[in-house]
């Protein structure tokens, strides 16, 4: 399998973020990519560095106004007195259906950044554009060859809607991959197994019937992103019935997760897509600082097997996963389950081997 990646993420620094009334270190550190890429190479994956940055893939799911904002925000921010080093919003158009678009970069930051977890630094736009190009390249490879591919994206993408960043994500890599697959396949499924709801992906496809969005995540009633990911959200207009949310209780274990994924697999089978995008998050792991689920590495092995059972051409797009010490093993377990073997087997936090 080819693993697409870019070195351009390295200078993107999430830095400190503001959450629950306090500043804390952001979890999206560059070392995540090294952990995952090393594990992919041990599995025998063929690394492909994407060097050319293209705007067209991102433009397939994002507004030009939003992309211009992301591209120019950092420079504009620096021209305003009394602003810090990174673009971090402090004023939001909360629940205003027809919010006007301000001239001020401070206002625009609140318009396009839905939280204070997603600062824009000097290199954020380049990194986001590179991640989008990675996702598009992986999907284009599948379109050409039908071979499964792995897009090792950083920053992740699934919280980004057509015109808003959030949850440390800026351009929606998985949606971009799905949009690319639509060139060849009339129906595409997007399965999101990150512990957080993929609210951006949902919003992008909410009114469409050609992309089934299905997400398993911790119940947002008391968890990020709070405002979406509820079972009652099922799409609207042409898209009614093509969004499926399977929220699970805090601390859900392997059995609960695996049976929710079985339900998702059966709904994907019923949809009869030509291809699949998987938003692959490892932050449901029990040692992950995201603290959402209580999954062992075996759940990811099982998930690989379950997704394999669909027999679909698939693009795996990297989303969250922040337990650096375990990330490589989790990737290995997942792809062992999917059918790739390495010489190490896989281990969970208690040291038990699987596969
Ligand atoms: Zn996540």
Automatic annotation (TrEMBL):
Keywords: Hydrolase, Metal-binding, Zinc. InterPro entries: HDACs, His_deacetylse_dom, His_deacetylse_dom_sf, Ureohydrolase_dom_sf. The keyword Metal-binding applies. Pfam families: Hist_deacetyl. Its cofactor is Zn(2+). The keyword Transcription regulation does not apply. SUPFAM superfamilies: Arginase/deacetylase. Residues 30-334 form the Histone deacetylase domain. Belongs to the histone deacetylase family. This is Acetylpolyamine amidohydrolase. It comes from Pseudomonas asuensis.
């Amino acid at each position: 399998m080819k693993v697409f990646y870019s070195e351009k993420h390295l200078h993107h620094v999430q830095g400190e973020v503001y959450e629950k009334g306090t500043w804390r270190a952001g979890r999206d550190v560059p070392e995540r990519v090294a952990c995952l890429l090393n594990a992919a190479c041990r599995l025998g994956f063929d690394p492909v560095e994407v060097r050319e940055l293209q705007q067209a893939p991102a433009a397939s799911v994002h507004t030009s106004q939003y992309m211009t904002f992301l591209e120019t925000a950092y420079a504009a921010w620096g021209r305003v007195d009394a602003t810090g080093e990174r673009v971090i919003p402090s004023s939001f158009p909360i629940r205003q259906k027809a919010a006007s678009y301000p001239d001020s970069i401070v206002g625009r930051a609140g318009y396009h950044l839905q939280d204070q977890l997603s600062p824009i630094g000097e290199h954020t736009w380049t990194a986001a554009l590179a991640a989008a190009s990675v996702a598009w390249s992986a999907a284009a490879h599948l379109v050409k060859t039908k071979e499964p591919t792995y897009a090792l994206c950083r920053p992740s993408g699934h919280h980004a809607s057509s015109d808003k960043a959030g949850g440390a994500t800026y351009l929606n890599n998985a949606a971009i991959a799905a949009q690319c697959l639509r060139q060849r396949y009339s129906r595409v499924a997007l399965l999101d197994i990150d512990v957080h709801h993929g609210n951006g992906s949902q919003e992008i496809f909410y009114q469409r019937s050609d992309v089934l969005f299905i997400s398993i995540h911790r119940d947002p009633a008391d968890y990020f992103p709070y405002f979406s990911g509820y079972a009652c959200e099922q799409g609207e207009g042409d898209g009614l019935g093509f969004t499926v949310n399977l929220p699970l209780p805090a601390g859900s274990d392997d059995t609960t997760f695996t049976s929710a994924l079985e339900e998702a697999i059966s709904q994907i089978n019923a949809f009869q897509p030509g291809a699949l995008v998987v938003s692959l998050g490892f932050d449901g792991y029990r040692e992950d600082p995201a603290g959402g689920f209580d999954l062992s590495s075996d759940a990811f092995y099982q998930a690989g097997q379950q997704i394999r059972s669909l027999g679909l051409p698939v693009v795996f797009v990297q989303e969250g996963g922040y337990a650096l010490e375990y990330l490589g093993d989790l990737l290995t377990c997942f792809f062992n389950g999917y059918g790739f073997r390495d010489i190490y087997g896989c281990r969970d936090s208690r040291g038990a081997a699987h596969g």
